[in-house]
Hints:
- There is one protein chain.
- The chain is built from 13 helices and eight strands.
- It has helices spanning 20-25, 41-49, 58-65, 71-92, 114-127, 141-144, 151-163, 185-198, 211-217, 239-252, 259-276, 282-304, 312-316; strands spanning 5-6, 104-108, 136-139, 167-171, 204-209, 230-234, 256-257, 317-318.
- The strands form two sheets. The chain has a six-stranded mixed beta sheet.
- Helix 7 crosses helix 8 and helix 10 packs across helix 11 (259-276).
- InterPro entries: AAA+_ATPase (IPR003593), AAA_lid_6 (IPR041627), ATPase_AAA_core (IPR003959), CbxX/CfxQ (IPR000641), CbxX/CfxQ_RuBisCO_ESX (IPR050773), P-loop_NTPase (IPR027417).
Amino acid sequence: MNGRAMAAGERPEGRPSRQINVVLRNQTEGYGLNKESISDPEETAASLKNNPQFAMYQDIQKELDQLVGLESIKDFVFEIYAFLQIAQMRSDAGLMSGSHVYHMVFKGNPGTGKTTVARIVAKLFQKMGVLTKGHLIEVERADLVGEYIGHTAQKTRDLVKKSLGGILFIDEAYSLARGGEKDFGKEAIDTLVKAMEDHKNQFILILAGYSDEIDFFMQTNPGLPSRFPIQIEFPDYSIDQLIQISELMAKDRDYILMPQTILKLKQHLLDEKNETSQAFSNARYVRNLIEKSIRHQAVRLLNQYSSGNPGKLELMTLRVEDLKLDKK
């Protein structure tokens, strides 16, 4: 299920729900149309992109193109756009285009792009008229859970109020269920479930965290699974993708990585990923390494050029000695 958007819960006949891309593309089945009369999905997507109305998607596309990897996540974002666009066309044609539930669960290790994608999704929903503001309120357990009875419910309601018209993004959402029945985290969960009913279609709730922990969390309240029809797996980046990300991060800061620096970084990432497995923080880990290397380069240059200024190329270059790695 890596990187695929899934519909949570089960179908009436007891079988698991289909993937959302299948649902959106095959809604015509069972209405007097056979498979031969349905356009190829890729041709349909290409045709839609040539539509003048696709212009509003261009800004979203540019942001997605800047992300390394995440191809299935990018496909999912386009599917949401396509669904909303067709829903508007159906409405204009006098056809039914009922309301849709967009609350989501983002599963994956840290540094896999969950928050970044959430911001892009918020912009898409704002452009398409689903959300009035399209802002993102990012919170964690400490922002929701209070210190006494009733405090948690009020804090949670206040955050929901701030997120109306946008997205409420709860990172490490599973931490709300760690304290057991007597923990105030349960009060936050109950308040969120009620808010999703009281403010239906006024905001979108996205829960994020490790896959296993999120799956456990969803079972803590019987009302949760059915309220999150979209679940997305964010896969870990490959080593080559992490190297690409590191070079882009350096470039964005007007730095370049020497070939020897890249080789050293690549070997370190291989070792680190094998040792930490699920605890590996992907792009976040790479960002910390690059920023640390920049600080080390500054110290090296000050010592090396105590009586003069380094040239522009030297100011930009991160050498292998700048990539100092912690010994374990």
